[in-house]
Design brief:
This is Triosephosphate isomerase. By secondary structure, the protein is α/β, with parallel strands linked by helices. It has one domain: Alpha-Beta Barrel (TIM Barrel), CATH 3.20.20. The protein has eleven helices and eight strands. The protein has an eight-stranded parallel beta sheet. Helix 10 packs parallel to helix 11. The longest helix is centred in the last third of the chain and has 19 residues.
């Protein structure tokens, strides 16, 4: 059985106090749910208190980004050592907003994935096509490029700690959602690609999340697809009740 992971990506939202208040509420809503891994991607400023707030609960904390270097003259950056010492478990890497707004390429993202694994962090590697790429019939080419580029040099053993998040860029924050059938086609393509790269046992075991306007009212139908193993949630993760409903929909 693959691990079902529902992760919230708060992006540039929530102060430290707001984060702690949210997590206190969330623990009460999903506290008894152990069949689904519940993860919250908080801003750097909230990570320390977020980790403390969820200690002893079934909620895990993710960082939203990371520099691949351990230390050095990288103004404004955060290293894997810093995240690991705080008790962060996951880190979101290669998000389409990082690729689009900050020019991150596969090589840089791959360096981050390797650094995360080397420091005992679990990367959530984001992949996905833009609207014009989908309309041009390039979805599989783009997704394969992101998967292969992001995982270059990653061993089969290391893949046991890697999560893939398929995020069609055209469905992020737009209110548009890939139909369950559209999403499943791409998830199945990613699954077959992973099997080709790492063999059946490892490829079948990798959690592949769907990200792209997943909400309480469409989560169950999406997650019920054979190769959709949870979600990476943006807007619907900003309220504890709506996010908890997505977690429950994954049961």
């Amino acid at each position: 059985m693959r691990k079902i992971i529902v992760a919230g990506n708060w992006k540039m939202n929530k102060t430290n106090k707001e984060a702690v208040s949210f997590l206190s509420e969330l623990k009460g809503l999903v506290g008894g749910i152990n069949e689904v891994e519940t993860v919250i991607g908080a801003p750097f400023t909230a990570l320390s208190d977020a980790v403390k707030e969820v200690e002893g609960s079934n909620v895990k904390i993710a960082a939203q980004n990371m520099n691949p270097n351990e230390s050095g003259a990288y103004t404004g950056e955060i290293s894997p050592l810093m995240l690991k010492e705080l008790g962060v478990e996951y880190v979101i890497l290669g998000h389409s907003e990082r690729r689009e707004y900050y020019g991150e390429n596969n090589e840089f993202i791959n360096a981050k994935v390797k650094a995360a694994l080397n420091h005992g962090l679990k990367p959530i590697l984001c992949v996905g096509e833009k609207l014009e790429e989908r309309e041009a019939g390039k979805t599989e080419d783009v997704v394969a490029n992101h998967v292969q580029g992001g995982l270059d040099g990653i061993t089969a053993e290391e893949m046991k700690n890697v999560v893939i998040a398929y995020e069609p860029v055209w469905a992020i924050g737009t209110g548009k959602t890939a139909t369950p059938e559209q999403a499943e086609l791409v998830h199945n393509f990613i699954r077959l690609l992973l099997i080709d790269l790492y063999g059946k046992e490892i490829g079948e075991g990798v959690t592949i999340q769907y990200g792209g306007s997943m909400k309480p009212d469409n989560a169950k139908e999406l997650i019920s697809q054979k190769n959709i193993d949870g979600g990476l949630i943006g807007g619907a993760s900003l309220e504890a009740k709506s996010f908890s409903e997505i977690v429950k929909a994954a049961l």
